[in-house]
Amino acid sequence: MGPRIDRLNEERACISMFLTLSRQSPFSGSPLYAADCSFRPLVLIGGRYCLRNSSSIRKDFIEPSVVCAPRRKPKLVYAAPQLVSRTKKLSIQCGVQFRPCIDIHKGKVKQIVGSTLQDSKEGESGLITNYESDKSAAEYAKMYKDDGLTGGHVIMLGADPLSQSAAIEALHAYPGGLQVGGGINSSNALSYIDEGASHVIVTSYVFSNGQVDFERLKELAHAVGRQRLVLDLSCRKKEDRYAVVTDRWQKFTDVYLDKKVLDFLANYADEFLVHGVDVEGKKLGIDEELVALLGRHSPIPVTYAGGVTTMADLERIKVAGTGRVDVTVGSALDIFGGNLPYEHVVAWHSQQEALAL
């Protein structure tokens, strides 16, 4: 609870200081508060100061306007009411974002072929591990922070204490910069926000008997707020349609991804995370059909994961998703034992930002 309250107080103090200074100085150059506020909830966009979508105090501000913040997907960010009359609205096209990942299994950072995961009671004889790192989850988190990457996800591939501890250490290393998933429910979701997660990621918990469990979904949205919730809609092909899969991607649901489903679920979440399970972890190339579906129909930010092997795959996602689908790369990266240089992907990410602004 402590870190969350401290961040709220810091943001409020930062905004208060900025509004005081803004009355004395015209809007130009860098944000006036930059040297004094570590969290930096405000961002300067084309002469308009806006509150970051990740800010905890958005409720103190007016209704959202669609603009784009650095290193963010097109999102709703909020402008201080005192500033609206003094600024002009700009239409800014946002770029595709690379979202980093940290997958944790039994306390270790690993890259596992997701479709081989099973419940612990079934054993792990069929588990295929592509890579196990000597670095801790916190070390990866710090690297992502240093490289200015946001919106990445920490996934606990098991509910064991070692994985939970490693995930929390990663959140502490990069407060507000990472999402967390794996075993999230309405009773523990808020605790991960308090530990520093920007969002919690949920999947199996909100599905029951092949359908969406609306009571659980509402409980989660009430517990942490829709703006802190990411729905994992990872899917597999079934009868030429994409069915959401749960329980370590082993069980098909009766929920198929299409415009109607995505529009409806967007009422309960801030973002979607979608693994193309048929290609995930296999480095066989991306599922362009799935990416195209997400680009056409997702009304909120969505991140695709699965099959990226080369830099060309990143461009394919950009094209197939019409610039509206973010991307995660796992096993293919050299930091996870693959051949794709992490620094090249980070450079590509920076290029997308530059093109967007």
Question: What does this protein structure show overall?
Answer:
InterPro entries: Aldolase_TIM (IPR013785), His6/HISN3 (IPR011858), His_biosynth (IPR006062), Isoase_HisA-like (IPR044524), RibuloseP-bd_barrel (IPR011060). Keywords: Amino-acid biosynthesis, Chloroplast, Histidine biosynthesis, Isomerase, Plastid, Sodium. Pathway: Amino-acid biosynthesis; L-histidine biosynthesis; L-histidine from 5-phospho-alpha-D-ribose 1-diphosphate: step 4/9. The protein is α/β, with parallel strands linked by helices and 357 residues long. It folds into two domains: 2-84, no CATH class; 98-356, TIM Barrel (Alpha-Beta Barrel), CATH 3.20.20.70. Helix content is 30%, strand content 22%. The protein has ten helices and 20 strands. It has helices spanning 2-22, 81-84, 137-146, 161-173, 189-194, 214-224, 259-265, 288-297, 311-320, 342-356; strands at residues 42-45, 48-51, 65-67, 75-77, 98-99, 101-105, 108-112, 129-132, 152-156, 178-181, 199-202, 207-208, 211-212, 229-232, 235-238, 241-246, 251-256, 271-275, 302-305, 325-328. The strands form five sheets. The chain has an eleven-stranded mixed beta sheet with strand order 5-20-19-18-14-11-10-9-6-7-8. A three-stranded antiparallel beta sheet has the order 15-16-17, with no helix packed on it. It has a two-stranded antiparallel ribbon with strand order 1-2. Strand 6 and strand 7 form a beta hairpin. Helix 3 runs parallel beside helix 4 and helix 8 runs parallel beside helix 9. The chain is globular, with a radius of gyration of 20 Å. It starts with a helix and ends with a helix.
